[in-house]
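Run log, item B.
One chain of 308 residues. Sequence copied directly from the ordering sheet:
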Amino acid sequence: MTIAPRFAPLALPLLGLSFAAQADDATLDFGVPAWPGITVKTEIAEQLLAPLGYETRTHELGLQVIYQGLDGGDIDAFLGGWMPAQQNLFAPREESGAIRSLGNNVEGARMTLAVPEYLYDDGIQSFADLDANRERFDGEIHGFGAGSAASEVLHGAIDEDTWGLGDWQLVDTSVVGMLGAARAAISREEPIVWVGWTPHWMNLDLPMRYLDDSKNLFGENNGKTDVLTVLRGDYAEAHPNLVTFFEQFSFSAEEQSWMIQAFGQQERDADEIASQWINDHRERVQAMLEGVATHGGEPAWPAVQESL
C-alpha cells in the first residue's frame, strides 16, 4: 500500500533524468523508502509542521537514491538512517558535511536472532545455545533476503564457524516468507530461529524473544540499532528551528511497531494513523515542540494545539 497522492514524482539529475519537483528552501522535501514505519513517521512530521507554516513534500524512493538526493540537494530530510546497517552510505556523506545526523528517533531498536517464547523459556536464550540444539532446528536459520545486511552477517558467522554455526544453513526467502515460516512453526510449537528486529509488527503479533550474543555479530550491545534523523547539511544550517524540532522528534520501538502494524498489516491510511498518534499523545507532541517556533516566530505548540 502506498500513499501516492501525497508523494511528488522525483527523478534525480545526478542520474541523468529530469527532476519533476525541484527541491528548494521554501519546501521541506522528505525522502521516504517504501517502509511502513518511515512512511507513518514522516506523515506525523508533516502534520506537525503544517500548522507552523512549513510546506512539505514526500518522495517515495529507494535507499541509495535518497542518499544521492541528500548529496545533490534534491532531498532535505530522511527519517530512516538505520545504523550500523547503512554505515557505508551514511559515513562518507557525514564526513564531507553533505548530511547531518540529528540523533536517534527510535528508542529500543535492535536486530538479532529471535526464537519463540516457548523455546526461550526452555533454555535457548543465547547464540551459544543454538548449536547444542542443532537437530531441533534442522541446522537452519531463517532470513529475509539474500544480500541483506543480516544475510551478510550470518554467512560470515557460518564461514568462520562462529558460535559453532559452521555446519548450519541460512534459509533466505523474504520478510513475508520468513515470518510466515515463524508463524507456522509457532502455531505448532515447533523450534525455529529467525532474524528479528524491532520496530516491526512481529513484536506485537508473535510470542518471541531475542537471543543474547556476547560476540555482537549484529553490532554492539547485542544488535542495538539507531534510526537516525538525517538532514541535508546546508539545509540544517539554514533552518535551526527545524533542527530543534527534529532533535526532539522521537518514538519508542513499541510505538513504531504499532505504526508498522496499522499501516502495513491493517492497511489503514498513513494520515489517519498519524493523526491518531498525535491526538493520543498530546503531551509528547508538546515536548517535541519545546523551543520550536512557527514561521511567524510564535511558539509552536499553541498553533499545533489549535489545529487538532
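Observations after the first pass:
- The two ends are 26 Å apart (CA to CA).
- The chain has two domains: 4-108+225-307, 110-223.
Flagged for discussion on Thursday.
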